[in-house]
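Troubleshooting log. The previous structure file for this entry was overwritten by mistake, so regenerating from the original sequence record. Sequence copied from the archived sheet and checked twice against the printout by T.R.
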Amino acid sequence: MAIVLITGATSGFGEACAKKFAANGYDLIITGRRAERLQLLQQQLEQQHNIKVLPLCFDVRDEKAVTATLNAIPEQWKAVDILINNAGLAMGASSIDQGEFSDWDVMIDTNVKGLLYVSRTVIPWLKAQGKGHIINLGSTAAKQVYANGNVYCATKAAVDSLSQAMRIDLLPYRIKVTAVHPGAAQTEFAVVRFKGDAEKAGNVYKGFTPLRGEDVADTIYYCATLPAHVCINDLVITCLQQANAYYFQKE
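Regenerated output below.
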């Protein structure tokens, strides 16, 4: 059966993708920083769906940990069919002149460099097979900048550009590349952005019904299961009450 590698699988879109693909019989490599959550997810999915799950605990920001951990897995697990570069986050929401350097570093190192480290390690495996699919999680913030989103928007614009570049560079190897850009979704995203302030995070979603992690996972699964000759290159998904990164209709 096919193997899916999902980064940032301990919550949000990554966890939802793990559950979606597991329910459809895929074996999984799941990565994240929280070992307990990885182990619990592994147990849950293996018991419920009779599949194999390989949990790998590392931070995508750590290039040595990424390359050492992935390269050390058994050879049979390197037959990855789908790579979902999901690990990412927003940290803080300040104007450009008031941003925290440490927040900028976390976002750039996770959203851009982490995606590159994982991709650089896994792409040779896909090339060796002469097929594969890379799905990169962007954001509506990649398409339109909004107030106080500066560096986060820049990192997701980088994901957009890197996805286009991957599509070109990997064209000769029959490797699909899809960028999926979700809008507002009620996951741990806002809680992380506001550094644990649950009240402030909850206010983000007041007055409208946001996307759920499952909505995005369903969309990713659709993209990943199209016929071999079909590739969705770029896809923006929002809830009904959101038009883009800026415009909302709130009740």
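Residues 3-237 form a domain with the Rossmann fold fold (CATH 3.40.50.720). Archived copy saved in two places this time.
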